[in-house]
Specification:
The complex is a heterodimer of chains A (about 120) and B (about 120). In chain A, about 0% of the residues lie in helices and about 45% in strands. Chain A is mainly beta. In chain A, the strands form three sheets. In chain A, strands 2, 5, 6, 10, 11 and 12 form a six-stranded mixed β-sheet that branches. Chain A is globular. The termini of chain A are far apart. Chain B is mostly beta strands and about 120 residues long. Chain B has strands spanning about 5, 10-15, 20-25, 30-40, 40-50, 55, 65, 75-80, 85-95, 105, 110-115. In chain B, the strands form two sheets. In chain B, strands 2, 4, 5, 6, 9, 10 and 11 form a seven-stranded mixed β-sheet that branches. In chain B, strand 5 and strand 6 form a beta hairpin. The chains are: A mainly beta (about 120), B mainly beta (about 120).
């Protein structure tokens, strides 16, 4: 079945530091890949997505590139801010059919804390 | 405005007292789903529905029921809640037409449920 593995957290950074959160996946079909963000006390927001190999998703200074050869979708940001403190989830969705169709498979989440 | 609406947002209940968490979407989406979020486990799918009167188990269905009598509504029912069902619950919907795994998934704001 499908699975998503994220780097262990929590991650603590100083403001303006470079951020990488690793994400690797296994999937039976040709998945689309997503990063979701959950700010404290809030629901899930789509941060960015990529639907095919070599696509780059970007939003709010965050980027992630769909790497089929390494089955990865690492999240990066060049200069984090205190307001980026949140939980980040990597997820995939495939259209291979069967019970996985339409379903999002999530990683375990990575807590990011950014200090001033 | 595209919306997935869950109610209640916060609930404290006692073991064994039946409860229902409602979910409604206004986008005429075929696919609806429930997830629970637990620390270190990410989000896991409880049940999903491909369309009216079509429902199936996700990864963690034990202790839950669902129904899909109308396209817009997908309530989650806990017949006899237990403390291990204390969690944050999300309802989600997406369009299935076109077979696009990249179709945007819309999430509700989440329902915090505590069973004592």
């Amino acid at each position: 079945g499908n699975s998503v593995t994220q780097m262990e957290g929590p991650v603590t950074l100083s403001e303006e530091a470079f951020l990488t959160i690793n994400c690797t996946y296994t999937a039976t079909g040709y998945p689309s890949l997503f990063w979701y963000v959950q700010y404290p006390g809030e629901g899930l927001q789509l941060l960015l997505k990529a639907t095919k190999a070599d696509d780059k998703g970007s939003n709010k200074g965050f980027e992630a590139t769909y790497r089929k050869e390494t089955t990865s979708f690492h999240l990066e940001k060049g200069s984090v801010q205190v307001s980026d403190s949140a939980v980040y989830f990597c997820a995939l969705s495939d259209n291979a059919g069967g019970t996985s169709y339409g379903k999002l498979t999530f990683g375990q989440g990575t807590i990011l804390t950014v200090h001033p | 405005e595209a919306q997935v609406t869950q109610n209640p947002r916060y609930l404290i209940t006692v073991t064994g007292k039946k409860l229902t968490v409602t979910c409604s979407q206004n986008m005429n989406h075929e696919y609806m789903s429930w997830y629970r979020q637990d620390p270190g486990l990410g989000l896991r799918q409880i049940y999903y529905s491909m369309n009216v009167e079509v429902t199936d188990k996700g990864d963690v269905p034990e202790g839950y029921k669902v129904s899909r009598k109308e396209k817009r509504n997908f309530p989650l029912i806990l017949e006899s809640p237990s403390p291990n069902q204390t969690s944050l619950y999300f309802c989600a919907s997406r369009r299935l037409a076109g077979g696009r795994s990249g179709n945007t998934i819309y999430f509700g704001e989440g329902s915090w449920l505590t069973v004592v």
